[in-house]
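Hey, weird one. I pasted the AAA family ATPase sequence into the form twice and got a warning about non-standard characters only the second time. First submission, copied straight from the form history:
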Amino acid sequence: MFIEHVVIDPARAPQWALATPAIAHVAEFGFALTHPITLITGGNGVGKSTLLEGMARAWGFAVEGGTWGVVKPRARDPLYDALTVRTGARAKAGYFLRGETHTTVTEFGGRSHGESVMELTSRFIPNALYLLDEPESGLSAVAQMALLSQLHALAGADAQVIAVTHSPIVLGVPGAEIVEVGEHGIERGLAVEGTLAFRAMRDFLADPHGIADYMADWAEGELG
């Protein structure tokens, strides 16, 4: 493994970060990485991307994202000096895809966000670390299935992937450990069918018109 364990010193972490379930859990219990692919899911605002960004910076990636070893001014992420990682002995290589800045650090001019993600992931090499923040953003369902295939192939080629995702398709990568962050912390080892993302999509597909009508009525009530 490239990253084996993550710890957070609560005395050094900002209070707003400690108020999120992901950061609070890791600060109390630590976070061991035991699988070639770890997929972190859950609702918005629970600290998933903050945790991933802290891991990336602690391992040596630029906070803005990009290829390992590219020298950039070192911005300080919210968990700077608070989050540390225990690493293995493997030589460093890989890529950090940060959702907010992906298009500013890639060189795929003229491509859509989704196209640039697929072009990027198709160039990933074996025996490297990949930290991916919502890589499904901008991808069609079919493209997400292709991404699933790419990630599974990386796991079989001595790579390590840690990804934050809301996609029930990406969560289906065979052999991945699924980690769901909820209101009360982190639950590990879920089946894809047990995740919030999968259950929400299943319910919608079972009754799309009924769910759409219900949500439209709810929105009208909120606005009214």
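That's the output from the first submission. The warning seems to come from a hidden character in my clipboard, not from the data itself. DSSP finds eight helices and ten strands in the chain.
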